[in-house]
């Protein structure tokens, strides 16, 4: 069963068709990868899915419900969490605080704090945050200000924040960009474990040499369209995929296929 589907999504920027009739399916408990050369529309696709850009045409269906063009906070409440580079103000917070501020429905916690249950409520979240940090292998860093962390450790904090947000689908833009290979593999191992525990992933990533063996299905974009889809073996021998990457490789060798 698909947790997410897009149907003929299109998005224009001043006459430029950044998305041109994009239809994808993301089955539950899968890691689905979107690849393509620079400017092919990958970020626009995940921005439209997560409500950060409005679609001009088409639909986004999550768990059978039409969520097209809903605002990001509403989409977040459905269980779709987009990871970002950690913004500057959050970098001053500790790792633990970063997870605690990601708890959804802050309004509810205010309501609960008016009643008797607030102490156990707070404790419950601190405990949950510790469990997540332990799972991610960064519990020893709980009191560290986030600006002191390495790029890879920050990626793990981003994942921790998504898990605090009760994510069913985690949408990640370049989760291993700039991360050393050993830590990249360790991050991707964690994603695989989370997948086995029920989480689904939609990922945009350029580091194909590292990520391909972890993913279940791949969509390839070029000029706002899906030009190929399938498993690793099919994608790597698809002439159209080779063509767009070879074309891109004349400018810069980025995909490492
Ligand atoms: N906010 C925007 N305003 C105008 N044009 C935009 C905007 N965002 C993206 N575009 C254009 O839409 C097209 C697709 O861009 P997008 O960022 O989605 O590609 P991408 O595949 O994610 O590229 P990269 O791999 O470099 O991140 C590009 O031509 C880009 O210049």
UniProtKB/TrEMBL annotation:
Pfam hit, one: ABC_tran
Please report the stretch or stretches of sequence annotated as the ABC transporter domain: 4-248
GO CC: one term? plasma membrane
- InterPro entries hit by this protein: AAA+_ATPase (IPR003593), ABC_AA/LPS_Transport (IPR051120), ABC_transporter-like_ATP-bd (IPR003439), ABC_transporter-like_CS (IPR017871), BCA_ABC_TP_C (IPR032823), P-loop_NTPase (IPR027417)
Q: One biological process GO term for this chain? A: amino acid transport
The record's CDD domains line, in alphabetical order, gives: ABC_Mj1267_LivG_branched
Q: Which UniProt keywords apply?
A: Amino-acid transport, ATP-binding, Hydrolase, Nucleotide-binding, Transport
Q: Which GO terms describe its molecular function?
A: ATP binding; ATP hydrolysis activity
**Its family?**
Belongs to the ABC transporter superfamily.
Q: What is this protein called?
A: Probable branched-chain amino acid transport ATP-binding protein LivG
Query: Which organism encodes this protein?
Result: Archaeoglobus veneficus (strain DSM 11195 / SNP6)
